[in-house]
Amino acid sequence: xxxxxxxxxxxxxxxxxxxxxxxxxxxxxxxxxxxxxxxxxxxxxxxxxxxxxxxxxxxxxxxxxxxxxxxxxxxxxxxxxxxxxxxxxxxxxxxxxxxxxxxxxxxxxxxxxxxxxxxxxxxxxxxxxxxxxxxxxxx
Length: 139
Known about the structure:
Layout: E1 20-24, E2 27-31, H1 34-42, H2 44-48, E3 51-56, H3 61-76, E4 80-85, E5 93-96, E6 99-100, E7 106-107, E8 110-111, H4 121-131
Parallel strand pairs: 3-4
Antiparallel strand pairs: 1-2, 3-5, 5-6, 7-8
Helix pairs in contact: 3-4
């Protein structure tokens, strides 16, 4: 039987020989030691990033564009990203930390009905950094 591949700590990135596992929102995350485990329990949003769900319509070009954008964002910043296919309009729909359409713009007191108007990765990364600042390790 082969030894399992080592997994990096969700907090500091170290690869412990025997990780301590911490459960957050039903998912288990490896941690290096009691300090990292305590930080993850106390600050899961800052360490793991926000829960982001993109509800998309398969085959829709705009939805596929948004999926690609969020995948690129997730590659550059911690997110608990999930994609959910749907057949409901409007599409795509975004839910961040349980709030649907958090990027909706308000212009002169009237909500803009268009969703997901941030076009670039840098814009989304900046918005996320302001709304959900994160920790960059404990060590």
